[in-house]
Design a protein that fits this description.
Elements (H helix, E strand, L loop, with lengths): L49 E4 L12 E5 L5 H9 L3 E7 L2 E3 L13 E4 L5 E4 L4 H17 L4 E5 L14 H17 L3 E5 L5 H4 L5 E5 L11 H5 L4 E5 L8 H6 L3 E4 L9 E2 L4
Parallel strand pairs: 1-2, 2-3, 3-7, 7-8, 8-9, 9-10, 10-11
Antiparallel strand pairs: 4-6, 5-6, 11-12
Helix pairs in contact: 2-3
Length: about 270
């Protein structure tokens, strides 16, 4: 996994307990995300503003339609508060790597655990073992649904491109990623494809939006255009580039772009809205 997700996996243990914080002020309120028609899933559109916060005290004051927050550490009450304020909510969970700091860590059989993925307490999962992983991920998505989330952001969706400790293939990854999408959809949740740019042509029809890290830095943003052409949002962040280096280009591509710090706390610097 070449993208940076959090500064330290252990930082996710920091509770999102208080509904206060400090971010860069937004110039104006964005319109709330529209509710889906009865029986349909929420479908974020290209250019939809968002906030991505996985660590620190949850700041609910950012004036954007979408919040992407940690599924385990965010409470049902916090999700309800965001929904009351007109925000759609995305439930961050790792689906491709085991994390020793999660409350369900002991439920994962040891034979599923592979090499470390570069983050403390995390190891790649053997995504070929669908019989074992399907119920485990189903329970995580049940948690997201029961807390009132609208969507899921499954992380570590490209183990086949990394030294996982298993002989994973592109076909293995496609099969697993499609299972993840189905598990979300079966629960009425939208689901995003995290990174995995190489498989976008095969997976754009299975996912409702994309989440990408650092496509501008790696000069890859145009590879996300299939989502935009399909009317689906691309939620994008950069960490190392100033906004002056990417906002014009990603805005032209209709990506929902902002700059974040590596720890993914409340701070954000959003690209100007067109």
């Amino acid at each position: 996994m070449k993208r940076v997700r959090t500064l330290l996996a252990g930082a996710l243990l920091v509770g999102l307990g208080a509904l206060a914080g400090c971010t860069v002020a937004e110039p104006e309120e964005e319109a709330p995300a529209p509710d889906p028609a009865p029986g349909e899933r929420w479908q974020p559109r290209p250019g939809t503003g968002w906030q991505w916060q996985l660590t620190g005290r949850l700041d609910t004051s950012v004036k954007v339609p979408v919040y992407d927050v940690d599924g385990f550490n965010t409470t049902k009450e916090q999700v309800a508060r965001l929904r009351k304020d007109g925000r759609k909510t995305i439930c961050y969970v790792s689906t491709g790597a085991w994390e020793d700091f999660r409350p369900d860590a002991d439920a994962f059989p040891k034979q599923l655990l592979g090499a470390g993925n570069g983050w403390k307490g995390e190891r790649w999962l053997d995504i070929r073992r669908l019989d074992s992983l399907e119920p485990l991920m189903g329970k995580r998505f049940d948690m997201c649904r029961d807390k009132g989330f609208d969507a899921v952001e499954p992380d570590n969706m490209d183990g086949y491109l990394n030294t996982s400790g298993f002989p994973l293939t592109a076909a293995d990854q496609l099969k697993y990623n499609r299972l993840i999408a189905k598990l979300a959809h079966d629960r009425g949740l939208s689901v995003g494809l995290k990174n995995d740019l190489e498989q976008i042509p095969e997976l754009v029809g299975d996912f409702d939006f994309a989440v990408n890290e650092q496509c501008a830095q790696y000069q890859e943003c145009e590879r996300l255009t299939p989502f935009v052409k399909a009317g689906k949002a691309v939620f994008h962040v950069e960490y190392e580039l100033p906004t002056s280096r990417f906002c014009a280009a990603t805005g032209a591509l209709k990506l929902s772009s902002m700059r974040k710090k590596y720890e993914l706390g409340p701070w954000r610097e959003a690209c100007p809205r067109p």
